[in-house]
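BUG-221 | component: ligand-complex export | severity: low

The export step for magnesium ion jobs runs without errors, but we want the raw record kept on the ticket for reference. Input record follows.
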Amino acid sequence: MINWSCIDTVLLDMDGTLLDLHFDNYFWTEHLPRTYAARHQLSKEESHAKLFGEGSAEQGTLQWYSLDHWSQRLDMDIPALKRELQHMISARPFAIEFLTRLHDSHREVVMVTNAHRKTLEIKMNTIDITPWFDRVVVSHDLLAPKEEQRFWHELQKLHPFDPARTLLIDDTEQVLASAQQYGIAHLLTLLQPDSNRQKRIDTRFRGIHHFDEIMPDGPQT
Ligand SMILES: [Mg+2]
């Protein structure tokens, strides 16, 4: 599925790619609406509508991913609420082994995430995968989410890569489409980013279930 001899740089998303998206889905669809409902004496449905009804136009923007924005908008300490669920943060199957093999292969390995720094911090407090990376790039620092072309241009300046010899693995279709538009040649999605949800069958990009399907061989020659 992947011809590793054609790849020098591997860009990896965090949530739903290396880490199980169950944590994030559970937080945003269960934990936060329930906590918000209790505080404002709303039903869970009312709470959900209030939280995501009017603001959903922001989806895919930096604001949407910003915990500060959500904390301010809801007048709640969102990082603290996330920490309550810290025990639910987990790596996806074979993710650590895949990172170890990539590291041993001496390819450039860069994390590219839309997650807010505070989210990254909470996750890395539980499972620190940062040592496996040559660089960790948070889109907030580049002032554009991965869905925008600007992100890839800024990334290129920060950490030069050859798009024709780069692989991006990401579970978000709009992100893969954006990377494709920029010219990144090798793109893969995840067929089951959330271990508690159904597998996806309608993905536009080629997908894997687990990283064992694409393990690189030993050290690059
Ligand atoms: Mg993701």
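Assignee comment: Attached the raw record above. The CA atoms of residues 35 and 129 lie 30 Å apart.
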